[in-house]
Every structure is written in C-alpha cells, then in structure tokens.
Specification:
By secondary structure, the chain is of the alpha/beta class. It has one domain (about 1-295): NAD(P)-binding Rossmann-like Domain (Rossmann fold), CATH 3.40.50. The protein has helices at about 10-20, 50-55, 75-100, 135-145, 145-150, 170-180, 200-210, 225-240, 250-255, 260-265, 270-275, 285-295, and strands spanning about 1-5, 25-30, 40-45, 50, 60-65, 105-110, 110, 125, 155-160, 165, 195, 195-200, 215-220, 225, 265-270. The strands form four sheets. Strands 1, 2, 3, 4, 5, 6, 7, 9 and 13 form a nine-stranded mixed sheet that branches. A hairpin with a 4-residue loop joins strand 3 and strand 4 (about 50). The longest helix is centred in the first third of the chain and has 24 residues, at about 75-100. The radius of gyration is 19 Å and the shape is globular. It starts with a strand and ends with a helix. The model has no long low-confidence stretch (mean pLDDT about 95).
Length: about 300
C-alpha cells in the first residue's frame, strides 16, 4: 500500500514509518514545513490546507497528529490546543481525502480510551457508552472530525489507544529513570486500572487496521493492570524498591486537572481486535515492560 502518515515525528509515528516500510509499504510523511525530502508532503492542519497533489495515489492514511495530553499543565489555553489540534487536524485530513480522485480506501484516525471516562473496576469494550470529563468530550469531537471521510465512502477506523509502553518517550520515558533510581511507587491508591499496549503491538495494530475493521477499535493489551501491579512489575524487572508512593494530593498540586486522568481508572478491553484474530505479542504488563526495557 501507499500510506501517508501524520504525526510522523512523534513517539508512535516515528516508529510506525520504518515499521510500515519494513512491511513493504510505500510511506509518505505529512510535515508542516516546506518539504525537504521526496517522501514529504506539506500540510497545515490548523489552516485546513493539504498539498493534494502530493497525496495523489495514496491507498490509506494513518492520522496520528495532535498535541500531547501530558506534555504541559492543563491551563485553559493548553486544553484548547489539545482539542483543536485533534479536531481541526482530523477535519483537515478527512476533507483532503474526500477530495482526492481516486479516493483512498481507508483512514486510520487516532483516538484514545479517554472516550470511556473513569470506568472504576468495570471492564469496558467498544460497546460501552462514552464517559464524562474533558478527555471524553475531546475524543467524541476528535472522532467526529473524520465525518467528511466517512461521508465520502472512505472506511474510517478509530484506534482508541491506551498508555503506550516504550523504551523511550511517552509516559514510560519519564517512568524508567525514576524507577531505576529507586524512586518509583504507586500513584495515589494504586487501585486505578491502567490500560496499556506495548509499542510493537501498537504498530502491529495500526498496520492491521489499514486492512481490517471499521469504527472504534480499542488498541490496548487484553490484560489491563492496576497502577499498583504496574509498580510492582517495574520493581521486579529493574530490581529496585518501589516504596515511595505519591499521594493523590501531591499529584493534584503538581499536575493540576490532569491529575484526574493519572488517578482515574480505565479498564478497557480490545474485544473487536481479538474477535478479528489479531494476536498480541505482549498481552501482559510484564511482557510489555520487558519489551520496553530491551528497547531503551
């Protein structure tokens, strides 16, 4: 396939491009600056512009671009950036795809398990209704941003991704050094569920969705773990103590409103992926962490 990727400089996109090429796909990268290489196509997601000529002949698009949820404290201005970068960017790429002739067959448009809100101890799959809160509202608008592609008859898939376990970057890019120094511990009560996915399963899942399924698809490992279980697994793997819990109040002071996401519980299951025959290479937190550590 000839595949275009947005967000190609991020944690997932930066790994997805070589992964797709290794699978034999021809890959274009959408960039906001003037193209400097033959595989680059210019776009401006906030202005709503895409170089349509550069996208001519693509079979599918993997849309990953968006401001990092945990990159900054959630001021009102940054919350607006989180929302706008997702909603407007998705609308831009969806409208561009609808204008192409011939149209691409598929848009794999990133989404998140924030859709479900705080699920407590209740396990949820793609049949569950949306939750409440800032991220749940963002995800609903984010997925709706792909409507122009749907209206044009393009198959649209929304991989609702959990916490990506990687050796470098993302949430674990911050956790590895802390735990290696023996400063790791549970966050808050530790009873909250973390729905994770290893980076290699994330890449395999996105590649799978280029040819399979439609609509929302939970891209999370089949065995979510509590924060306390993740903490214990990190300690075992790194052979370090995990005796320094971080009180909820301390997280609220440091992270502000974003602390509600860290302390919230999301027990999300990949029902549609498993029913379709997709095989996870790292189905447990121990396997995902071992893979992440081996690739630091």
């Amino acid at each position: 396939m000839r595949v275009a990727v947005t967000g190609a400089s991020g944690l997932i996109g930066g790994a997805l491009v070589p992964h797709l090429r290794g699978q034999g796909h021809d890959v274009l990268r959408l960039v906001r600056r003037a193209p400097a290489l033959p595989d680059e196509v210019q776009w401006d997601p906030m202005a709503g512009t895409v170089d349509l000529a550069g996208l001519a002949g693509v079979d599918g698009v993997v849309h990953l671009a968006g401001a990092g949820v945990g990159d900054h404290r959630w001021t009102e201005a940054y919350k607006a950036e989180i929302r706008d970068s997702r909603v407007r960017g998705t609308d831009t790429i969806a409208r561009a795809m609808a204008q192409l002739d011939p149209r691409p067959a598929v848009l794999v448009s990133a989404s998140g398990i924030g859709f479900y809100g705080d699920t407590g101890d209740t396990a949820v799959d793609e049949e569950a209704p949306g939750g409440s809160g800032f991220l749940a509202e963002v995800v609903r608008a984010w997925e709706a941003g792909a409507d122009p592609a749907r209206a044009a008859g393009i198959r649209v898939v929304h991989p609702r991704t959990g916490l990506v376990v990687a050796g470098r970057g993302g949430a674990w890019g911050r956790l590895w050094p802390i735990f290696k120094l023996g400063g790791g511990g549970r966050l808050g009560s530790g009873r909250q569920w973390w729905s994770f996915v290893s980076l290699r399963d994330q890449l395999a899942g996105l590649t799978f969705l280029l040819e399979h399924l439609e609509g929302p698809v939970n891209l999370t490992a089949p065995n979510p773990a509590t924060n306390a279980e993740v903490t214990a697994a990190m300690g075992r793997l790194l052979r370090r103590p995990t005796l320094l819990p971080v009180p909820a109040k301390a997280l609220e002071l440091v992270l502000g409103e974003f602390s509600s996401e860290v302390l919230g519980s999301a027990r999300v299951l990949p029902a549609r992926l498993q029913a379709s025959g997709f095989q996870f290479r790292d189905p447990t937190i121990d396997a995902a962490l071992a893979y992440g550590l081996a690739n630091r």
